[in-house]
Amino acid sequence: MSAVDIDGLTKRYGDVTAVSELSLSVDRGEVFGFLGPNGAGKSTTINILLGFLDPTAGEVSVLGTDVTRDPQSVKARVGLLPEAFEPVPNLTGREHVAAAVETKGSDDDPDALLDRVGLAPEDASRPADDYSTGMFQRMALAVALVGEPDLLVLDEPSAGLDPNGVRLVREIVREEADRGAAVFFSSHVLDEVERVSDRVGILQDGELTAVNSVENLRDDLGMGSVVSATVDAVPDLDPIRAVDAVTDVSADGSTVRVACAAPGAKMAALRRLDDRATVADVTIEESSLEDLFEAYTTDRPEAGDGDAGDGATGPGAGAESATGDEPSAATAGGDRT
Ligand code: ADP
Ligand code: MG
To answer: Measured in angstroms, how far is the CA atom of residue 256 from the centroid of ligand 2?
Structure first.
């Protein structure tokens, strides 16, 4: 049985289609990263998962239960960190967690949970209204963890956290998945999603444009890695361009950049370079989810059906310089000589 089963989900607010025919499943023990720009429909999907919103169309089942039929039993088994957690005035952090323990009928120790999320005891004793965003987010995470939920749903859990907090979220997500919980979380911190997710789904304008492991998404796009080598003098680069699976070679000052679509191409290209110049230093950069995200949301590589809208959606201008290694069409022709 899947932890989450969404089939043909559509949600409209008047004229706005926030989510359009979305289908996806998340397994138990799986970490699923739900990515997309602001307004993509992530929070809407999450609110429907928890039964806070009714779908316009489609089926949503959580832990085997149809959410629209029995939202209460779903809520009892799901831990949620919502996008906007409203504190109860004057209630301390500890009291917020204790209230969730009570509601869920769990026997968790609020102090242990607060310790796990790194909220100091003296802070736990203060009213949550006075918390910084980061402290508040930690408390909200503790609330989500109450009762060892079978499904943890986190809407932008890293928002407002410092790097230590972001790392902590990642550790907790992994720990929860290891004890068998499914984790469904949305985020803009793509780097973090990439490191912790088993699979990611990329949502744009309410439509899922890709679902896959980060690794397979990368393969789909033919975006491998970029080898940057510092050389004493830049040699003729054509022999390096000729290496199998090398998709682009360029030089900038004494740095040669080689884009490789397959792992084996890296060493082959480096050897040829080393035969023709003295290599002083080498760095290898794997394509990040950020690159993937951009490729999927601005210029989908295999949009399959007609892609009617030619003019695409404006933001192309935001894509700063990284033109050296465009993932898709540009590489098709292979050799440029
Ligand atoms: P995300 O969480 O990915 O940023 P949301 O799910 O919050 O996206 O929003 C998806 C779209 O639905 C946006 O266009 C947003 O403006 C719209 N939307 C969200 N909530 C409402 C609402 N209550 N009424 C009308 N439109 C809404
Ligand atoms: Mg949101």
So the answer is: 41
Supply the residue whose CA is at minimum distance from atom 18 of ligand 1.
18
Radius of gyration over every alpha carbon of the chain, rounded to an integer in angstroms? 23
Q: pLDDT by residue (tens digit) across 121-147?
A: 999 999 999 999 999 999 999 999 999
Residues with CB under 5 A from ligand 2 (ion): 42-43, 83
What is the 134 CA–ligand 1 centroid distance (Å)?
24
Residue 102 Ramachandran class (φ > 0 left, ψ -120 to 50 alpha, else beta): alpha
| Confidence (pTM) | 0.76
Distance (angstroms) between ligand 1 centre and the Cα of 32 equals 21
Q: Which residue from 1, 45, 15 is spatially nearest to 184, judged by alpha carbons? A: 45
Average pLDDT, the chain: 86
CB-based contacts of 128: which residues, under 8 Å, 6+ apart? 87, 88, 91, 92, 93, 96, 136, 139
What is the atom index within ligand 1 of the atom nearest the CA of 156?
A: 2
**Chain center to CA of 59:** 24
Confirm if 173 and 198 have CB atoms less than 8 A apart: no
Atom of ligand 1 nearest to the CA of 38: 4
Q: Give the closest ligand to the alpha carbon of residue 10.
A: 1
What domains are defined for the chain?
A: 4-212 (3.40.50.300), 218-303 (3.30.70)
pLDDT in tens, 18-32: 999 999 999 999 999
Structure tokens at 312: 């695409």
The atom of ligand 1 lying closest to the CA of 203 is 3
- Ligand 1 centre to CA of 155 (Å) is 13
Per-residue pLDDT band for 296 (boundaries 50, 70, 90) equals confident
Q: Is the dihedral of CA 290, 219, 153, 315 positive or negative?
A: positive
Q: What type of residue sits at position 249? A: V
- Ligand 1 lining (C-beta closer than 6 Å): 13, 16, 18, 36, 38-44
Beta strands at 4-13 and 16-26: parallel, antiparallel or unpaired: antiparallel
Closest CA to 107 of 72, 148, 78, 152: 148
